[in-house]
Design brief:
The complex is a heterodimer of chains A (about 110) and B (about 110). Chain A is mainly β. Helices cover about 0% and strands about 50% of the residues of chain A. Chain A has strands at about 5, 10-15, 20-25, 30-40, 40-50, 55, 65, 75-80, 85-95, 100, 105-110. Chain B contains no helices and 11 strands. Classes of the chains: A mainly beta (about 110), B mainly beta (about 110).
């Protein structure tokens, strides 16, 4: 399917566990982004990537790790999950005219 | 860095009436201003955007206006319909810096 997909859609994990959220896009867009969405904060940028093997921090990067070995994939890893990382996570990619396309989101609960 | 403020946080309008959502930004270098609509359980979807060389842009019932001097931009929805009910986000960035800064969102409810 063309577009941008995220998996899993829902995840429950325990404090201290490592969890990886996956993001895949089929457009070969260079730029990809990870956001978290929390009530009252809107969308906040965690990490972004300009191309394969090029990543940079956003507004709230602490506790997260990203990698990008292939253009189409941009996984986000929580190395040791904390309750404050309970959120909805969105991946996005950027088109030719700076427009961003968002995935359907992953709802993560850390217990 | 950029700071985007969005008002109101909630808005209820009668079906058929107009809705206006306003945003202000802090970085005078910003020159790209998109608006996103987010329906329940879905990711945000771009509905319209405007670049700083344009003062107004329309797409059917949706329009966006930009005042660079005052550093604010607004979303106007006319002849509102029930399917316009959603959360709307404004954002700002500048070309060459691909990071978008989002407002905190407006929950729009259309009353039948």
């Amino acid at each position: 399917d063309a577009g941008i997909t995220q998996s899993p859609r829902y995840k429950i994990t325990e404090t201290g566990r490592q969890v990886t959220l996956m993001c895949h896009q089929t457009w070969s867009h260079s730029y990809m982004f990870w956001y978290r969405q929390d009530l009252g904060h809107g969308l906040r940028l965690i990490y972004y990537s300009a191309a394969a093997d090029i990543t940079d921090k956003g507004e709230v990067p602490d506790g997260y790790v990203v990698s990008r070995s292939k253009t189409e994939n941009f996984p986000l890893t929580l190395e040791s999950a904390t309750r404050s990382q309970t959120s909805v996570y969105f991946c996005a990619s950027q088109g030719l005219f700076y427009e961003q396309y968002f995935g359907p989101g992953t709802r993560l609960t850390v217990t | 860095g950029e700071n985007v403020e969005q008002h109101p946080s909630t808005l209820s309008v009668q079906e058929g009436d107009s809705a206006v959502i306003k945003c202000t930004y802090s970085d005078s270098a910003s020159n790209y201003f998109p608006w996103y609509k987010q329906e329940l359980g879905k990711g945000p979807q771009l509905i319209i955007d405007i670049r700083s060389n344009v003062g107004e842009k329309k797409d059917q019932r949706i329009a966006v206006t930009l005042n660079k001097t005052a550093k604010h931009f607004s979303l106007h929805i006319t002849e509102t319909q029930p399917e316009d009910s959603a959360v709307y986000f404004c954002a700002a960035s500048n070309f060459g810096n691909e990071k978008l800064t989002f407002g905190t969102g407006t929950r729009l409810t259309i009353i039948p």
